[in-house]
Amino acid sequence: MNIKTLTSIGLSEKSAKIYLATLSLGVSSVQKIAERANVKRATAYLYIQELINDGFLQKVPSGKKEYYTASNPELLKNRFMDNFQIFQSGYQELQNLYSGFEGKLKVRVLEGENGLKEVYKQVCNASQIRFIADLSSVESNFQESFSKISLAVKDNEIITREIIPNTDEAKHSSKRYAVTAGKYYSSRIATNGPIHNDCAIFDNTLALFRLNEFNLFVVLIEEPTIAQTMKTVFDLAWLSATPFIGK
Questions:
Q1: Residues 6+ apart with CB under 8 A from 237
Q2: Domains of the chain, each with CATH number or no CATH
Q3: Alpha carbons within 13 A on the beta-carbon side of 54
Q4: Is the sign of the CA dihedral 171, 175, 176, 178 positive or negative?
Q5: CA 13, 19, 21, 23 torsion: positive or negative?
Q6: Count of other CB atoms within 10 angstroms of residue 113
Q7: Which helix (H) or strand (E) holds 20?
Q8: Against a cut of 0.70, is the pTM above it?
Q9: Quick one: the chain helix, strand, coil %, rounded to 5?
Q10: Is 79 within 8 Å of 9 (Cβ atoms)?
Q11: From the CB of residue 234, how many other CB atoms can be counted at a distance below 10 Å?
Q12: What are the pLDDT tens digits along the chain (247 aa)?
């Protein structure tokens, strides 16, 4: 057992040195404990009393002289486990406080196919959805999610607007999407520049997907003011886009 082990459960460095010294000496006087711990005798007295109060050391009666012995190290284990259980019981409340204060930014990066599917699953439960996407890439790489979201749009009556690139592939995908999603889905064509990957803005969340090649990931930002700002940006882009499907 070393100093670091003892300080990790809350003992000060000097208390740890004195406990170790006493443990190695068995039953000993303050003078010998101080010498073994390499501290002054007056300092040893101070920390010995503290360790006695905490149950780590015990007095050994021997006439007029005072001797001390260390408690079983099992006490350290029990103390650590008790503290850990106390921490565990309050952990969730601490986490809720940490996550819940106003303005707390929640950013997660989910990697791989399963990470993207997890976020697409969240999209199915949105109240409204704004997409900026190369929809043909979504359809070709995530056919199952493509179908599930379009079905959720229809079944849950989720108002969905999508800005797509001016490509034949994206237009064909948008038409196929609309067959299932129905009247709750509308799309427009971006007037300038290409669109790669996928971007979804829903509820208080902004999701930025990378769909191309082998490096699949999604950056998920959950923060109301950022989501609202991006909704405003989308609405401005929507006004300048060319109508394609729906209103």
A1: 132, 163, 190
A2: 3-73 (1.10.10.10), 106-245 (3.30.870.10)
A3: 20
A4: positive
A5: negative
A6: 11
A7: helix 13-25
A8: no
A9: 55, 25, 20
A10: yes
A11: 19
A12: 577 778 777 788 888 889 888 888 888 888 998 899 888 888 888 988 888 888 888 888 777 788 888 888 887 777 778 777 887 777 777 766 666 555 556 889 999 989 999 999 999 999 999 999 999 999 998 999 999 999 999 999 999 999 999 999 999 999 999 999 999 999 999 988 899 999 999 999 999 999 876 789 999 999 899 999 999 999 999 999 999 998 7
Q: Could you tell me if 192 and 166 are in contact, meaning their C-beta atoms sit under 8 angstroms apart?
A: no
Question: SS3 of 65, please?
Answer: strand
